[in-house]
Design brief:
By secondary structure, this protein is α+β, with helices and mostly antiparallel strands. It has a single domain (8-153), classed as Transposase IS200-like (Alpha-Beta Plaits, 2-Layer Sandwich). It is 38% helix and 18% strand.
Length: 160
């Protein structure tokens, strides 16, 4: 689109199905490179990616013709297929249905980048569920706890 100028950033979060700790430190960098390639091939810009064994955080610069749901669908489908083809785990690897996406302003970019970089330290103090609920609340997103996260059917007391 000629004469169109945008700066759109989205912090995307999604989890391994059942929130299983399946993303191994042994191959996570290869996974991150693979996901980076998916995003680049879709003509978008990956700013940073990091995560924990049960979930990932991505900061993506989007062009206005990109549908976020389509991009995340492609990231999850192609990366899970790749993980299974590589036989990194016994059984079938799947990402959880759905994702969280939170807009980021230019002035918050470095804060979000630092947050994503420091996932390991952050999760010494807070569970993924606590982190995710904080994001949803901070962005005033209404959610139903039964659809919040797959966690082997167990909801902590604060969400019941």
């Amino acid at each position: 689109m000629a004469n169109t100028y945008t700066q759109l950033y989205v912090h995307v979060v999604f989890a391994v199905k059942g929130r299983s700790n399946l993303v191994s430190p042994k191959w996570k960098e290869r996974l991150y490179q693979y996901i980076s390639g998916i995003i680049t091939n879709e003509n978008q810009k990956l700013m940073i990616i990091n995560g924990m064994p049960d979930h990932l955080h991505l900061l993506i610069g989007l062009k206005p013709d990109c549908t976020l749901s389509g991009l995340v669908r492609d990231i999850k489908a192609n990366s899970s297929k790749w993980i299974n083809e590589q036989k990194f785990i016994m059984g079938k690897f799947e990402w959880q249905t759905g994702f969280g996406a939170f807009t980021v302003g230019q002035s918050q970019l470095q804060t979000v980048i630092n947050y994503i970089l420091n996932q390991e330290n952050h999760h010494c103090k807070k569970t993924f569920r606590e982190e995710y609920v904080e994001f949803l609340n901070a962005y005033n997103i209404n959610f139903k706890t039964e659809y919040l996260l797959e966690d082997f059917g167990i909801a902590p007391p604060e969400l019941k």
